[in-house]
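so the lab meeting is tmrw and i was supposed to have these ready like two days ago... anyway. pasting both below. for each one the top line is the aa sequence and the line under it is the structure tokens. i havent really looked at them closely yet so no promises
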Amino acid sequence: MNKGFLLVVSGPSGVGKGTILHDLMNMQKNLVYSVSCTTRKKREGEIEGISYFITTYSEFEKKLDNKEFLEYAKVHNNYYGTPKDFVEQKINEGKIVILEIDVQGAMNVKKNSKDGVYIFVAPPSLDELQRRIKGRGTETEADIDIRMHNAVGELSYIQEYDYLIINDHINSAINDINEIINAEKHKVNRIDYNFN
């Protein structure tokens, strides 16, 4: 069995990461989303171990002390973190583990996981990004301003990634990332071979 790997995908809000990854899940059968650990209450319809790993504050902080997360953040008084054990288990099973996170989280993961593949998805322009966010019709003007301000900061991290995908046409972006995944699967250090 070939070894899997961690696929870290970042990019500004509204750039199309979710759509791209959803379609890739149908193209690549060995992709799995990373399951985060959180201290927030379980929501209706969520399944333990599939949607999230729900835990208490004290348990989460104990895991933090034991360095059990690739990365973590505190958002709205709740912790969220990427458990190392889950990611490593899936990689050892030959899975490609998708981690769709912001640039700060990606940089933290990069410190702890040198063998990951880091892809930044960017818009063709900031004007186009703003048009897409407005087109969703879910954010106020103030929210859009914040997202655009954040996008400028996120774009400054592109050089820290292995690959840059400009999402000017969704199908092209999907195909480009699919090709990257296929190439990465064939790296010598990921293939279990023995010709003796």
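ok protien two:
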Amino acid sequence: MAAEEIHIRNMVCGRCIMAVKKIFHDAGIEPLKVELGTVLLERPLENGVKDSLRSVLEEYGFELIDDRRSRMLERITTAVIELVHYGAGPSGKVNLSEYLSGKCHADYSSLSKLFSEMKGESIEKYYIAQKIERVKELLVYDELSVSEIADRMGYSSPAHLSSQFKSVTGLSPRDFKALKEKPLLPLDKV
């Protein structure tokens, strides 16, 4: 019997991977591999088992993805999250279109069209939103200067980072750091 790859929406961090592994383990299923957005199984799941897993996954905020377009959308969002938050891509300035084309094995124009149709925003806008959320995180940690954050996040200068940050959040990085309550979003809500 052939292996099966299961696609799961809202897997955005290492803790999500651990939670999904536990859900499968508790169901008596040992995956071959669990990564952001996917679980590789030795053999296909029976429908009853799949339905049961679907219910448990939904209790934890995950969702099984069955259709091809939704799977591709999830691959795109996962690739952007990996790139921005976990440094999965090449260091320094990244060509987003080349990175996503390579990661998703499709031409960028079709990825961009699908993403815009299904999410109602461009991949670039989503990428910027993820970058700004990561910058907010780094500002909260207060371990790096704005200049170091700009360098780490691939901005051409601290002024470019500050300008983009202000256009998205309405605040400068310094004003954001001064807030008592810092509005951070979960990655699946960006």
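from a quick look at the 2nd one: The CA atoms of residues 8 and 128 lie 23 Å apart. Strands lie at 4-9, 33-35, 38-41, 63-65. will dig more after coffe
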